[in-house]
Amino acid sequence: MITRHFAIPVTSPGTILRREMDLGTPLGHETEETTRHGALVSDAIIVRLIEDWLNLHGNDGFVFDGFPRTLPQAKSLDEILERAVWLDVSEETARDRIVSRLQCRRCGFTTSVTSAGFAERPICPYCDGPLVRREDDDVAILQTRLAEFNSKTQPLAAFYEEKSALHRLDANRSREEVFGDISRLIETRSE
Ligand SMILES: [Zn+2]
Predict the structure, then answer these.
(1) 129 falls in which pLDDT band (50, 70, 90)?
(2) Residue 60 and residue 8: Cα distance in Å, rounded?
(3) How close is the Cα of 132 to the center of ligand 1, in Å?
(4) Residue 102 CA to ligand 1 centre (angstroms)
(5) Average pLDDT, stretch 103-127?
(6) Mean pLDDT across the stretch 67-92?
(7) How far apart are CA 157 and CA 169, in angstroms?
(8) What is the Å distance from ligand 1's center to 140 Cα?
(9) Peptide bond into 9 cis (omega under 30)
(10) Mean pLDDT throughout 33-42?
(11) Would you say residue 36 has pLDDT above 90?
């Protein structure tokens, strides 16, 4: 919604890494080797990728999906980051959204069974692909993800609060309401 409305480029470390592997760059080979053995890609590599991406695309603002997730990653962004938006979601909301989430198997479009009557006709509005539940959208897996979040990502809130860059939003509301708040934050930035 944000990228479409404001025409701001978006990326995620996962997307960049897949591209490096597809292109067969030295870095791509290195990360392929790392992930094949089940290890996680190091903060140093992720940070380097993000810096390269920013040099190419980041002149007029950017949105990161899934970055920064750890304190070392956040510190690398320190000089260029203007504000951080923290979406507060209760465990109950997270569980409800995961249980009702549907995703297009072909193009990745994400929606929920409660919106637009997709439950009766689970077909993607963009590519006619089948809308299905994601295999990793399991309540048991949610517990693991929440534990990771609490140990690795939660400390970022204090980090950004200290820099007075943090804006907390109640994300237990509808996506339209949350989007409205985020839009106002982006618009006041350019004034
Ligand atoms: Zn689709």
Answers:
(1) confident
(2) 7
(3) 11
(4) 11
(5) 77
(6) 82
(7) 12
(8) 27
(9) no
(10) 72
(11) no
At 114, give phi and psi (nearest 5°). -85, -15
d(C-alpha 178, C-alpha 176), whole Å: 6
Residue 129 CB partners (closer than 8 Å, separation 6+): 104, 105, 106, 107, 109, 123
- Across the range 94-112, mean pLDDT stands at 81
Residue among 54, 4, 9 at smallest CA distance from 183: 4
CATH of domain 2-190: 3.40.50.300
Other beta carbons within 10 Å of 85:
18
| Cα(126) to centroid(ligand 1), Å | 5
Burial zone of 45 (CB within 10 Å; 0-12 exposed, 13-18 middle, 19+ buried): middle
Distance 55 CA to ligand 1 centre (A): 31
DSSP secondary structure string, 31-46?
HHHHHHTTPPPPHHHH
> pLDDT grade, residue 119 (50/70/90)?
low
